[in-house]
Amino acid sequence: MQLILFQLLNSLAFGMLLFLLSAGFSLIFGVARVANLAHGAFYVLSAYIGYTVAQASGNFWLGVLIATLAGALLGVIVERTLISRLRGHELRQVLLTLGLAFVIADAVRFFWGADIKSVSPPAPFEGPITLGGLIFPSYPFVLTVLGIAVFGLIRLVLRRTLAGAQIRAVTADPQMSATLGLPVARISMLTFAAGIGLAAFGGAVGSPQLALTPTLDSTMTLYALIVVVIGGLGSIEGAFLAAILVGLVNGFGAVYFPAFAQIAVFALMILVIAVRPQGLLGRRLGAA
């Protein structure tokens, strides 16, 4: 029983990291129509930035804050200097972000090396906790709560604020939104920055859960794509549900069927595509 509960906790924590990653990816694709293949690279770069700041200052949460802000700032710079110049050329944008992923990965290796780096959870979450006579690590609880809180905050912003209404309008029909006077280019830029900021936050806050390595970028980008495909493009609720499902399948598969853990994740994606091509909670682009 303890093994099952322990794996359930770790799977949920991993699922929340995938949500933070894929929510940004989904926002960027929904508004800017950019399949950002450098998303995992931004996740890893921000994790290393947070690690460096935490090591220098002794404050883990300061590292998370700086990494998140740095990620959002990089998102603004990349969108203004690169992505916006190729608006309407989807294939070129995909190739650009793919090349950017290679550049970021090489930069990470240059500045931090290729060695695996482990990050200790911040106080007071570095030790275990006891629940019902069972012992669990405390930091996965923190990640799970943070993921749920971010999901609630994003949903609140999208459903209850003017900015959220503008984002939903641009996602549904960018041409009509521009005709009605909405600043589509500015909204796309800010959404791109927010999406990268979410990935940066996930990378920094998730570093105690996943060891840092420069090769993690491709893995996280792949997981983001899988979650978005399963949940549905442009759906935050779908990304949240899909991230939990992928986390559970990956976590329990790694314990009980280690040779088929990754295959099981792909099988889940194929099953969802076969039954519901637009994803669990997705809709067709351009639909109202």
UniProtKB/TrEMBL annotation:
Entry superkingdom: Bacteria
Presence of the UniProt keyword Protein biosynthesis in the record: no
Cytoplasm keyword on record: no
Membrane-crossing residue ranges in chain numbering: 12-30, 37-54, 60-82, 94-114, 134-158, 179-202, 222-248, 255-275
Mode of membrane association: Multi-pass membrane protein
Compartment(s) of residence: Cell membrane
Keywords: Amino-acid transport, Cell membrane, Membrane, Transmembrane, Transmembrane helix, Transport
Family named by the database record: Belongs to the binding-protein-dependent transport system permease family. LivHM subfamily.
Name this polypeptide is given: High-affinity branched-chain amino acid transport system permease protein LivH
